[in-house]
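Please check these two lines:
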Amino acid sequence: MNEEMMQPIDAKLRELLQAARPEPALPPGFQSNVWRRIEKGEQASGWILERLAGWVLTPRLATAGLAAVVLLAAGAGAMRGMRTGEQDARDRYVASVDPSYLQR
């Protein structure tokens, strides 16, 4: 719609709508406070990551962690082997009592 075609009522309405939507002023130092908070967040996250990496990469702790993983894996393998061995022993016993059991 062209400005020329607007009627005086439309112009008054436009002015009223523009006045009803004032732009708030930012408080002093707003931008510097935002950047300060961003930098503080970056420093905090970097500090945690550095601390965690330093803790994990310490030779004593890395060795202890590796030993724990090896022991857990060996334990899990032993448990599975025991279960499999027990099942095989049951099957062999039943087969010795009833030879037709294995053919079912």
